[in-house]
Structure formats: structure tokens, C-alpha cells
Amino acid sequence: MRPPIGMPSMSKRSKRVLITLAVLVVLAVLWFQFVGIFVNWEWFGEVDYRQVWTTEVLSRVVLFVIGAIGGGGVVFLSLLLAFRSRPVFVPSGEVDPLSPYRTIVSSRPKTFVLSISILVGLICGFSAQGNWQTVQLWLHAQSFGQTDPQFGHDVGFYVFTLPALQMIMGWLFAVVALAFFAVLVTQYLYGGLRFSGPGRRITSQAALQLSLLVGAFVLVKAIQYWFDRYALLFSNRGGSFTGASYTDVNAVLPAKIILMVIAAICAVGFFVGAFLRSVKLPAVALALLVLSSVLIGGVWPLVLQQVVVSPNGISKEPPYIQRNLDATRTAYDIGSDTVTYKDYSGQLSVPASQVVDDTGTVPNARLLDPNVLSPTFTQQQQLRNWYGFPDQLAVDRYTINGKTQDYVVAARELNEAGLSGDQTNWINKHMVYTHGDGFVAAPANTVVNGGYPDYTISDISGQGDIKVDQTRIYYGQLTTDYSIVGVDNGSQPREKDTNDQPYAYTGAGGVHIGNLFQRLVFATEYSDANFLFSSEINGNSKILYNRDPRTRVEKVAPFLTTDTAPYPAVVDKRLVWIVDGYTTAQNYPYAQNVSLGNATSNSLDAQGAAGQVNTQVSYIRNSVKATVDAYDGTVTLYSVDDSKLDPVLKAWEGVFPDLIKPTSAISTDLRAHFKYPQDLFEVQRSLLINYNVQKPVDFFNSSGFWKVPGDPTSPSDSTLKQPPYYLQVKLPGDTQSHFNLTSVLTGFSRDFMAAYMSASSDPETYGKITVLTLPTATQTPGPAQVQTLFRTTSQISSLVTLSTNQSGGSRVIFGNLLTLPVDSGLLYVEPFYIQGQASSSSYPQLSKVLVWYDGKVGVGDSLTLALQNAAPVATPATGGTGGSTSATTPPSGSVSVTSPTTPGTPAVLPSNVNQAVQQMNTANQALVAAKASGDLAQIGAASQKLQDAVNNYLKIAGTGTSAPAATTAVTSSGG
């Protein structure tokens, strides 16, 4: 055997350089870690929630220590035993490739053992600390007061305890596996385990240690089989539903028990074989475990599923589907105590002309689309280039002069993207342009000045109808970067207000950065040396950061999932952001799994709306409302309703005492601005389309299922789901209208209406969901069909055609298609906007209002005129299953659309051909002038006038008689 070959040595100088570099790297890492901790510590102190930070950090530290000591200690003992039991002499007739490595390890065995153990300990510690929420929920577990139908355990066991037990099982698996590989490598390195050479290939000590570790691994697996039984209640084997199916209960569940017994026997076999110094018994045990896992755990359930369940599912699965129906309704709060189903004919029971006189719903129909009018708000109310509005505005309700109505609202925020030129230098960006100013609102059902919002504005220049004491906005959705505020006494402030006057921030928000150490910390945090060298920063300076309302709430309450649409509200004359917080769980037995990202996606996502986290949940509650003050950033959390049990929230209140204020702390004005959250509504909507059925057999057959319709007004993809809309509606049985979040639902694979879903936001009935179910025998058109009728109306189709033909000119925008219950029928209302594209300063203006009700389509300059102008049309055929046309559809499948006379068009036929020709010439000249102006509204009106004049000429020339009124018939395909 050749002598060992030593590794090349390093010079003392090289060692010193290497050590110095290593120390510098360690110091740099420690400094950056300290900076992150210090910045968080200061921020939590600013918002007065430092106990949240300390609780989380302490939880992480404790788990890190436990994981590091546990994982590192086990590996250390394994390495130590393996090293001490190594063979003294390694027989080999060949060149030993491991000799150099063995020499290195043997020269410093303690260093290698400790280094490997510490490394493993660090890995285990970092892995363990990430589970702090799971452990805290386990330690503060609550009872749900409900038991699962299979094992009879309280639901709290599955939500709080089972995840922690599964975490421990996973940790034990990892530690035992690491110890096994540590022993395996050590014994192989020192010849205790060989794959070639004379003599015995494995020493008795190596066999003992490896057998014991494999036995421990299999024993842990046996314990895991016991807990795997409970995980069956989250199975998706049933396909259409979550929970243990017939196969799970009758095949997989017994298999888990059998495999647990076999695994326990195998573990005993490994332990006995270890002490008998025999590998035969462990080998037989391992082969038995593998074979039984394949046959009992895999083949048996597969055979039962294919032979028994698949051909007879309609009789085998209903009992388990019923469990899923009950659990899902409870877990997502869509049971009978929350959701009320009402039969609704969908057909007007009064003359259509009386719709105009409706006082409950029609006057509140929203003509301002908050998802379209952000450019209009920006161009008309921006005031300064460093201000802006979000892409999607909000809808809220306010009571002005005793009248409550919907408003489209927005905060005029600091928009850093609007800065340009010298405004983007460091001082201007972070010390001059620091805040927004003003609350802008417009009645949602009112337009003025040719189709623009009727604004009421409160800012530093004056107060509108909605009074705000402090209009400056330092915290908002558009404010993502930091600002430095505060000046020495007597110094001139650098911050700039809307009126170009200097201003100094006096709020409680912000962290002091007056001394050199604090400036060094934030210079490191933001990688910006200006913190150190700027003379503008002084003893009174403060830095504002983490300024987005959602970010602030998520940091203060890390256990909450926040809604994607915070909205500004004036509460007790204070401008605040209201953020909805959800408590969620993933292990509610038999409740349907839902992906939050998929359930809450809609057509607004394509327009840049924030998306929800793409995580799986089986339980959700909107138990917390948070407010973030727009001026000083104060975060306050409220329990929405203490009378409703939410065990998840109760558990977190045990973790963070006094974090959430009780329901009694909510002021009357604040509660008046609570809205039923859109993300929760969309999750419930995605479930109710299936879980409206009452019988499990119908669920199995997909009988009675609905669907969320696509948004026919989406500019990118009409198959994307239509978002819900906040509206003032009067539902059957109500004496007055209420502020509700609404959505239409169509039939399964059909375009006709099936139901109308509405969730109340009013304080007295908050959270109550009403579902108006339409009879399947009638075929009330859904959004896609109504949109087709709107697009084929001559006045609208001509505007669309003109915009298509004019490259770079104006464009048309179909606003939100609203569905309103009126009397016993449905009224569709859609605002139609025109926006010029010739310049970047163009913005949408309301051009027309489109309506459909009782088989009639109307177009007008206002909602009243559109209702008055409505004329009968036929319902187009649906593209879905069973898509027959309505009784009024002509057999040929064509659709005859009659447009009302628009203002300015010839209302009476001329008395002779000469007058008719003169009308055509006049109309043609008007069209030429309109085209020259580039105003699409004028072009559309002039085109309609010319079309009417041509029709009048044809009638006079063909009949030689006069007629009392002129109409235009446009025929198109019925799809």
C-alpha cells in the first residue's frame, strides 16, 4: 500500500490574509444583519407595536436554538461514535483513493466534527425558525366547537395541532437522515464500510450504528403513518371535492394502519438485527416494508377506485360529498346563517315605462367607472406633476346634506413616477416632494360639463362637501420610497406643498436619523452615502419608510392576509386607509381547497390590479379591519364582530395580546365606511357557483352548477372573469336601497342568467349575502349577450367603427356593465366613454349611457334619456350548452335592433324629395366638419344624422309620402 499523500500547505502570510478576509466577510454579514434588525426595531417603535417584533424574534430565536442544538447535537454524537468506532487497520490490495482525505480529517478530527455539526445545526436552526407561526398557533390552540365526521376530533386539532405534529415528524426524518449519512460517510472514509477488498465489507460497529439509525427512521415512519390517517381529510382523490372519499375511507385508511404495524415490526427487526450483528433480518424487514407499501398503499386503493368507485360513484361518493358540502359552507361562511336564497323571476311585473320612475335602485346607478376614470381624475385634479391617483379608484358612500349616495373616491397621492428632470435629484426626491394633498370624490351617478365627474375636493386650498382636517398624505399606495422630513427650529422647511409654499411635517410618523450612527444605518439600508454627507439632515430629521398601507398592516399583523384593494375614507374628519385583513387556515377537514390567487383573479388583473397571494386555503374569515392614518401612519386593528367565533383570530390574540381592539372601539363613522371586502366575496362567489346545490347527488352530476361570467367589456380578454361591483341596490323585501357588493352568475356552460349575488356592507346587515335565483325555464340574457346587443346598436357600432378606422385617433371605452334588480326584473346599465389618443393628456369622458331591460335597448346622453329611448330588441343566441334564442328571436337568427332618435337628428320625415336631399347635404357637411375637428363624439353624432337623413330620403323616394317619425333598423348576425 502506498504511503498517504499529504495536501499542499499554505504559507503563514497566506493564512493571515485568508483569516483577515474571512473576518471582514463575517463582520460585513453581521453588520448587514444588524442593520436589518435595527431598522425593523425602530419602525415597530414608531408604530408602537414593538411587542409584535419582539414576540416574533423571540419565537424565531427559541426555535432556532432548539433546531440547531437538536440537529447539530444528533449529528455530532453520530460523528463522534462513528469516529471512535472506526477500524484501526483498513485492508486493501489496491491504491486507496481516500487516504489523503483520511489523513486530513485525522489530523484535526475535532475541527471537522465540530464544523460539520455546527453547519448542520445552523441549517436545522434556520429551517426550524421559519415555522414560528405554526408553533405559536399550536401553543395557543383554540376549539372550533365542531368535530370532523370521520374521527370525531375537534376541528382545532387539524388546524392547530396536526400541522405542528407533521412539522416535528418532518424534522425527525431530516435529523435521522443526516445522522445516517454522517455515519455512512465516516465509516466509508475510515474503512468501516467498503465496496471492494478482502475480508468483511462492513464492521460490526458500522452495522450496529447504521441499523439503529435505519430502525429509528422506520419507527418515525410508523408514527407518521398514524398521523397520515388524519391527512386523508384533506385528500383530493374525489376529484371534484376535497376530503376523504370512499376509496380513502375504505382502502387508504386501513392501508395506513396496516403499514403502520408493518413499519413498527420492521423497526424492531432493525433494532434486533443491529444487536445480533446480522444484516439479514433488517434486509428482510426493509424488503417487507417496501413491498407492502407498493401493494397495500398503492395497488389496493387503485384497484378499489377503478373497479368499485369509478363505475358506481353516484352511489358510493354522496355521503362523503355531503361532508364536503357541510364543511365548506362552514369554513367559508356561506352557510344558511349567512346566505339567503330567494326566488326571483327576472321578469318585470310592471310596465317597462315605470322603470324610469324607480326610486330605490335606478337613481343610484353608477355612471362613473372607477376602473376607467383614473386618467380623468389625474388630468383634471392632479394639479402638480408629482401628484397622482391609482389606476383603479375606489367606491364608497357618504351622506351629504342628509342624502346618502355612492362616490368614486381617491386620495391625491405623491406619485414619485411623475417626477422629472431636476426633480429626481436626491434632495428633491426625498426631502422636497414628500407628500400628497387632498381627498377627491365625485358622485358615482352624476356627470357634468359634457360627461365629466362632479368633483368635491378637500385639500389645503379649501374644503369640499366632505370635510378633512388634515389633507396632507404621507402614507399611501403610490408612495413606495422613503422621505426625510423635519427641520431645525427657525430653519426654512424644504418640503413643498400644492401651493408651492414650504411645509414642515409635524406628525408622529417617522424614525429619527439625527445622529451619525442612525445615518450610517440607513445609508447601509438604502445603499446611499447621501445620508452621511448631506448637511440637510439635522437633529430633528426623521425618515418615513414602509409607507404603503398594506405593507404597514402586514408588518404589524404578520398572520393576516390583506385584501388587495385598500381604499381611502374620511372618518371623523380624518383621512385614513381602510385595509381588510383575513385569517386563514389550510387544514379545515373536508372543506374545499381554494387558491386565493385563482379565486380572486378577474379582468382587472390585465389592467395592472394587484393580485392576491397564490396560496391554498380551506378556511377564511374577514375578522379584522385595519386603518392607516394617511398623515402620521398610525396603524389600528379592530375586530369586526366579537360575537362571531373565529378560533384562528382568538389563537393569534393569545400570541399577541392587546394587538387588536375590540368591536366596541369602532366608531360609528368608521363602521359606516366598512365595505364587504372584494377578495373574500370573490372566494365565496367561486364556491357558491357549485355549493348552491343542496343534494350531494346533484353535486356529483354537476347539476345546478353556475359559473362566473366573463367580462364582456374587458379590453384584453372577454373570457376573464367579471369583477364584482359596489352598488346601491334595493333587493326584494327591502324598503330602501343598501350599499352592496354584487355579481351576476350565469348557468353552467351557458350565457343566460342564473343568479344575482349580493353582500351587504351596511352596518345593520353587514356580511349578509343574498342570492336571487332565476328560474331555469326563463332565458334572461347574461352580460355577454347584453353586451352584444349594445355593440350592435347603430349609434354605438358607428362610433366603434370610426375609432377602429382612425389610426392614432380617439378610442371608445365600454365601462362597467352593471346589473341592477328592479321590481322583479333586471336592468343592465353601461356607461360609454370616449378618449382621445392624439396626445398623452387625453382622458375618458362619458359620451352615452346604454341600458337593457325587459327586452329593450336604449341609448341616451343620460340614464333617464336612455331608459326613455329604449326600444324592443331580440336576445342573441348563446354560445353555451342549450343555447336557444328567446321567443322573440326571428327564426333566421338575425337580430333587428331599432335605435331611438338621438338629439339633433331629424325627428320628422321631410315633405318631399328636395327637402330630403337638402337634409342629406346638410348632414354631410356637418360630418365633414366633425371629422376635421377630430372629436369622436361629434363625428358619431354627425354620422348618425347623415344615416337618418339617407333613410329619410329612401323612404320619401320610395313611397312619396311622409311619416310621423324616423327610425333606423340595423340587422346583424345573432351571435
Account of the 3D structure:
The chain starts with 11 loop residues before the first helix and ends with a strand. 41% of the residues lie in helices and 17% in strands. A hairpin with a 2-residue loop joins strand 3 (394-400) and strand 4. It is of the alpha+beta class. It is built from 25 helices and 36 strands. Helix 1 (12-46) runs antiparallel to helix 2 and helix 5 crosses helix 6 (155-189). The strands form 11 sheets. Strands 1, 24, 25, 26, 27 and 28 form a 6-stranded mixed sheet that branches. Strands 29, 30, 31, 32, 33 and 34 form a 6-stranded antiparallel sheet that branches. Residues 879-907 and 958-975 have low confidence and may be disordered. Among the domains are: 224-316, no CATH class; 355-547, no CATH class; 551-693, no CATH class.
Write a brief caption for the model.
The protein has 975 residues and is an alpha+beta fold.
Sum up the structure in keywords.
975 residues, alpha+beta, six-stranded mixed β-sheet, six-stranded antiparallel β-sheet, 25 helices, 41% helix, 17% strand, globular, disordered C terminus
Record the SSE blueprint.
Layout: H1 12-46, H2 50-84, H3 99-107, H4 109-129, H5 132-139, H6 155-189, H7 204-231, H8 246-275, H9 280-316, H10 318-331, E1 339-343, H11 374-381, E2 387-388, E3 394-400, E4 403-411, E5 413-414, H12 426-432, E6 436-437, E7 439-443, E8 447-448, E9 452-453, E10 456-458, E11 472-473, E12 483-485, E13 495-496, E14 502-503, E15 511-512, H13 516-525, H14 530-533, E16 542-544, H15 549-556, E17 561-562, E18 567-571, E19 574-585, E20 594-595, H16 596-599, E21 616-617, E22 619-629, E23 635-639, H17 647-655, H18 668-671, H19 678-691, H20 696-700, E24 706-707, E25 725-729, E26 738-747, E27 753-760, E28 769-773, H21 783-792, H22 794-805, E29 811-814, E30 818-822, E31 825-835, E32 845-853, E33 856-860, H23 863-868, E34 871-872, E35 895-899, H24 913-933, H25 936-959, E36 968-972
Helix pairs in contact: 1-2, 1-13, 2-4, 2-6, 5-6, 6-7, 7-8, 8-9, 22-25, 24-25
